[in-house]
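Submission sheet (multi-component)
Chains listed below:
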Amino acid sequence: DGGITQSPKYLFRKEGQNVTLSCEQNLNHDAMYWYRQDPGQGLRLIYYSQIVNDFQKGDIAEGYSVSREKKESFPLTVTSAQKNPTAFYLCASSIGIDGSTDTQYFGPGTRLTVL
Amino acid sequence: SQQGEEDPQALSIQEGENATMNCSYKTSINNLQWYRQNSGRGLVHLILIRSNEREKHSGRLRVTLDTSKKSSSLLITASRAADTASYFCATVPSGGSYIPTFGRGTSLIVHP
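Outcome: structure written.
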């Protein structure tokens, strides 16, 4: 089965804690993305990566960090510096980012709640 | 920043009726995509239309693009209860980062 997996599906965090959300893909895609979705809102880009060992900030990167050590994996850490982290987090991938291969494939999402 | 904005924000129809939702954007695009999201799930790609195309079809879906008006529409014909979901447009800018920007979505409810 090819696709994107995210874990966990639900995550609870106490204030002041860092948490890491997992995203794995076996589609052999070069590009991966992290989005945040709040109720009734669209998707806002947190970080994206076009290639292993490289990543770029999106529109709302403050309080988040990522790594891309392997092509298949793009974990997102929500740090204690993120003031309002409760949201639905979506990971996506695409073949590349070049204007011709932009269709994104999404994982099922992780719902993070800060207690 | 959200470039694509969908209209209406919410749409409620009966099974068998057609559903039309619109997307407006502000800057030049390479392509425009429509996605569907069932409640609490990830997004699923429906259709991509390039800036030099005016209309595309996929099953019961019809997408139009008017670059002079910077707008697109998604038509779902003969809707079914299973079409109940949120629909998002995503615009990919031309000559730039090629990163899609998503709108806030249209919430569609199809009553059986």
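Remark: Residues 63 and 70 of chain B are 14 Å apart (CA to CA).
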